[in-house]
Amino acid sequence: MNPLKTLHAEQDQAVWLDFVARGFVQEGGLKRLVDEDGLRGVTSNPAIFEKAIGHSDEYDDALKAAGDERVIDLYEGLAIADIQAAADVLRPVYEASGGQDGFVSLEVSPYLALDTAETLDEARRLHKAVARDNLMVKVPATPQGIPAIRDLTADGININVTLLFAQGAYEQVANAYIEGLEKFAARGGDVGRVASVASFFVSRIDAAVDKLLDETIAAANDPDEKAALEGLKGKVAIANAKLAYQRYKRLFAGERWQTLSAKGAHPQRLLWASTGTKNKAYSDVLYVEELIGPNTVNTIPPATMDAFRDHGKVRASLEEGVDEAERVLAHLAKAGIDLDAVARQLVEEGVQLFVDAADKVLGAVAGKRQTFLAAGLDRQALALGSLDAPVKTAIETWRKDGLVRRLWQRDAQVWSGADEAQWLGWLTIVEDEAKKAAEYAAFSAEVKQEGFTDAVVLGMGGSSLGPEVLAETYGHQPGFPRLRILDSTDPDEVRAVEAAVNLERTLFIVASKSGSTLEPNVFRDYFLGRMRDVVGPDKAGRHFVAVTDPGSAMEKAAKDDGFRRIFYGVKQIGGRYSVLSAFGLVPAAAMGLDVAAFLASARTMVRSCGSDVPPDLNPGVQLGLAMGTAATEEGRDKVTLIASPGIDTFGAWAEQLIAESTGKEGKGLIPIDNEPLAAPAAYGKDRFFVYLRLDEGADPAQDAAVKALEEAGHPVVRIALASKSSLPQEFFRFEIATAVAGAVLGINPFDQPDVEASKIKTRELFSAAEKDGALPAETPVAEDDGFALYTDAANADALRKAGAGSDPESWIKAQVGRVGAGDYVALLAYVTRNPEHLKPLQEARVALRETQHVATCAEFGPRFLHSTGQAYKGGPDSGVFLQITSEAPDLAIPGRSLGFATVIAAQARGDFGVLSERGRRALRVHIKGDVAKGLDRLKSALS
Ligand SMILES: O=P(O)(O)OC[C@H]1O[C@](O)(CO)[C@@H](O)[C@@H]1O
Ligand SMILES: O=C[C@H](O)[C@H](O)COP(=O)(O)O
C-alpha cells in the first residue's frame, strides 16, 4: 500500500496537505490526492496564499472580472473561493468520518494576531463567509489568541490553533478548547460536532535551535561536549513534539475531560505542522516518519508528500524513545539553550512572517488590480534619483510598522499624538456621501428647474478652492448655472461678481464649516442685502443655500433668513480635506456634475490607497513618503506643482492642502504653484516636482520640460489622468499623501495655529477701526508718488543695514538681497485677482528665479491667508515676503460701519503683524493709485 495511505489505515494518523492553489483544486489535483493517497484535509496560511496568488496568473480572470473592489475583498474573495472549492472536494471525507476529518483550514488575518476582540470578529466573519461545515478557522496561539480560541470553541466553531511551539502554550490551548467546549455544552450546544486541532510546529524549531547549537558548539572547548551537542541537532523538534503528545494524552483523560467525552466531545488532535525538511542534510521525510501516532494529523507540504509516497517508512514512532526525548531537552537546557525563549521568539517571528506574506499577497493583488483597472485609475510614476534609497527605507518602515493600517485606524501616534484622530472623517467620506448621491441629484435637478444662470460660492480656503477647481476644470454645463467663486474682500472683485451675474437668476452658496469666518459672513451680508433690494425680502432667502457644519452660527443665520436649503459638512473633516464632502459636492451638483460618477471616481483612489494596500503599492502613501522624505532627507521642501492645461487650477487647491497641513512648528513643505516652467538649471536643489498630466490635451512643452528636469536628476513624480473625469481621484490621493508627509515631518497635519493668529489680529484691527472710524495711521519707511513702504522695526533695521535708503527701490532691492539658497520669495498681493495683475507678478517670479535661483510664489490676499498663509508664518523660516497692498474704491457692507476696503486692509495688516511677530523677512509695498502700473514698477524693481 502507498505509505501515505498506510499512515491512516494502519496508524490512525490523518494526512493533510499543507498547500492550496486554484488550478490544483480546479483541475482535479486535490481530488486525486484524496482518491489515491487517502488525503483527509488541507491547511493554508498567508504564505501559502502568497505563493498561490502572488506568483501565478491563475487568478487573473477572477480579478479582472471583479474590477474596482477593495484589495482585501479581492484577496479574500479569491482565498475563500479556493477554500470553499477544497472543502467541497473533501466533503465526502468529512461525511464518512462523522464530521471528524476532511477539514480545510483558513487563517485569520495575521494583522489581528495580537488583538483578541478583532481575532474573534474576524474568525466569526470568515466562518460565516466560507459557509462550509468542514471549515476550520486558524487562530494563532499568541497570548491574545488563546482567549479567542476558547470563545470561538464556545460558539461551536471548529478551530485549528496555529503557531504552537511550546509545551506551556500547548497546555493553555488545550485548556482553552476544553473550557470552550464546556461553555458550548452549557449553552446547549452539541459538543460531538465540534472538531479542533492544535498545530504544533516542528521544523522551524530545529532550524532555530540548530543555529543556537552551532553557536554553542563553536564556543565550547571540550571535544566530547562538542560532539554531544552536535548529536542534538535535528533532534529537538521531534523530542518536543513527542513530549507534547504525552501531554495530550494526559490532558484528554481524567474526570473533567470524561464529562465532556460522555457528551460526545472529541479530543483536540495534535497536528504536526511545519513538517517540510528545511535542512537539506536531514532526511526529506524526517518530520513525517518520526511523528507517527494514533489520533494525530500531519499536514505535509507537496514535496514532502511526494517524497514520503516514494520512500517513506511507516512505523509507530511517536511513542518511541519518550525518555530519550526528555534527555534531549534536558541536555539542551544544560547547554544553556532556553527552549521556551526560542518558542516565544518563534511565535513572534511566525506572526511577522505571516504579516510579511500578507503584505506581499495584498501587494500582489493591489498591483494586479491597478493593472486591470488600466485607464480607470490615474497612474503614478516616481523618478526620485538620489531620493530613491531613503524613500525605499521609509516605505519599508511604514510596511513593517503597519503604519498604513494605523493611519486608517485613526491612530494619532502616526502623527504627533495630539487630536489627529478627530480629524480623519475624510478617510470614509466618499462611501458616506455616495449614499446621498440621489439627494445631490435631486438638488441638481431643482437648481436646473429653477432656471438659475449663475451659482456663486461665497467661502474661503477649503470652502472655495475645491469648488473653484470644479468650475474651472469642468466649465459651464449646458442647462445649469455657471459656477463662480468669490473668495476675496477686494471691493473691485466683489463688484465684478455682482456685475457678472443677474441677481434675479443667481443662487448663492454660502460655504463655511465654522460659520464664523469673516469673509463668507460679509459676502453673505452684502449679497443678501442686494438680493433683498432686487427680489424683495421675502424671496431673497430662496436664492441662498448654506453649506456648514452642524450647530454653526451660519446654520442658525441661514434658518433665520429663510435659506432655500442647508447642507451639512462633517465636523471630523477640516476645510482643506472637505472637497469630497458637501463642500465640494453641493457646488458640483449645482453646476450640473454627476455626483455619483464623481464619487465613484474618487472611490477608485480611496480603495487604491486603502488600509489593505502596502505602502509600496499605495499611490497616496507613496507620494506622501516621497514628499516628506524629500524634505527631511535632502531639504527638497519646495513641492513644485505642474499641471496640464485644463486641470491647472488643481494646484491652488493642492497648495492649501499641502501648505496649511504641513507648514508649522518651523517645518513643512512649501508648495510652488503656477510658476512658469524653465530649464533644469533654473531650479535649486530644494525642489521636488509633481506633474499632473492630462492624457487628452497634454502640453508637449511641459512634457519636454519635465523630461529635462528628470534627466537632470531632479525628483519628479508623474501622475497621469486619462481624462478630466478622473480628477476626483487626485483629491483623495493628495489628501492621503499630505497626511503621510505630515507624519514623516512629525507634525499635526490637521490644525492651522498660525492662520488662527492672523484671524485674531484681523478681527481686533477691524473692530477697533469700526469704533474709531478708520484703521490707525502708519508711518512709511520710504515713500514717493507711487509707493509707500512699511515694515516693522527689526525688518527696517536689517534692510537699512543692507542698503535701504530713501527711495522705495532701494528697500525692495535690499529685501531681495536677503534671499539665500534654499529660500523662497513670496509676493503676497492684496489686489484684484485678474489676468492683468497676475501677469507682472508672474514675470517678476521668473526674474527672481533667474537672478536669485530660488523658488517663488505669487498669491492673492486675502485668499492665501486661508491657504498657504499658514506655512508662510508657521513653516520653515525660509520665506522672503513682499506684501503688496492697493487702494480700491470702497464698497459698503450692510450692517457694518466700514466697508470692504477696510476689511482687506485689516487683513493685510493682520497678516503682516503675524509675519513680524514670527520674525519673518517681510516688507510691504503699498501701491498708490493705478494698480497695474504699480505692479509693473515693482516687477522692474525686482528684476
Ligand atoms: O470653512 P471655514 O470655517 O469658513 O474656513 C475657511 C478656511 O479657513 C481656514 O480655517 C483657515 O483660515 C481654512 O482651513 C478653511 O478652509
Ligand atoms: O498549518 C500549517 C502551517 O502553517 C505550516 O505547516 C507552516 O509550515 P512552514 O514552517 O514550512 O512555514
Automatic annotation (TrEMBL):
Cell compartments where the protein resides: Cytoplasm
GO molecular function terms listed in the Swiss-Prot or TrEMBL record: carbohydrate derivative binding; glucose-6-phosphate isomerase activity; transaldolase activity
GO cellular component: cytoplasm
Enzymatic class: transferase
Pfam entry (one): PGI
Catalytic residues, chain numbering: K138
UniProt pathway: Carbohydrate degradation; pentose phosphate pathway; D-glyceraldehyde 3-phosphate and beta-D-fructose 6-phosphate from D-ribose 5-phosphate and D-xylulose 5-phosphate (non-oxidative stage): step 2/3; Carbohydrate degradation; glycolysis; D-glyceraldehyde 3-phosphate and glycerone phosphate from D-glucose: step 2/4
Reaction catalyzed: D-sedoheptulose 7-phosphate + D-glyceraldehyde 3-phosphate = D-erythrose 4-phosphate + beta-D-fructose 6-phosphate; alpha-D-glucose 6-phosphate = beta-D-fructose 6-phosphate
Cross-referenced InterPro entries: Aldolase_TIM, G6P_Isomerase, SIS_dom_sf, SIS_PGI_1, TAL/FSA, Transaldolase_2, Transaldolase_AS
Enzyme Commission number: 2.2.1.2
Residue ranges that the Swiss-Prot or TrEMBL entry lists as coiled coil: none
Keywords of the record: Cytoplasm, Gluconeogenesis, Glycolysis, Isomerase, Pentose shunt, Schiff base, Transferase
Swiss-Prot/TrEMBL GO biological process terms: gluconeogenesis; glycolytic process; pentose-phosphate shunt
Membership in a protein family: Belongs to the transaldolase family. Type 2 subfamily.
Job description of the protein: Transaldolase is important for the balance of metabolites in the pentose-phosphate pathway.
PANTHER family documented for this protein: TRANSALDOLASE (PTHR10683)
Protein name in UniProt: Transaldolase
This protein's encoding gene: tal
